[in-house]
UniProtKB/TrEMBL annotation:
It comes from the Eukaryota. GO terms for cellular component: acrosomal vesicle; motile cilium. One of its GO terms (biological process) is flagellated sperm motility. This is Uncharacterized protein. InterPro entries: IQUB. It comes from Chiloscyllium punctatum (Brownbanded bambooshark).
Amino acid sequence: MQRDRRIQWEQEQELKIKMGKQEYLKKQYERRMNPKTKEDFDLLFHALEVWKQEELSNINRTLTGPERKAALYTLLEQEAQLIASISRHKVDAAKETGPKLIQNLLNKVNVTYYIKTISYKPDLI
């Protein structure tokens, strides 16, 4: 009885871990495909930098002379296109989240405060 419960509990824990990993991977994929926050864009730029370094090391390792220069130029063009694409996503995300951020700020500023004066009557600030 005790052993069966223990085995069942272990299976449940393994399932939770597996589901947690799947959820994490799904969330990371969503963050990369539809970035919205600064952290999402930092993640994209970091991934771009890692990709660029891998490509650069591959080019330096395998090519020499004019072929290397052509490959470096192509890499530069690809990087510029990817940066432009990320920037377009950033502008789109700012259009979506900008009004929400402004409204949240206005809601925070629009709070009324009462203070007690010398006459101990609450006054509105």
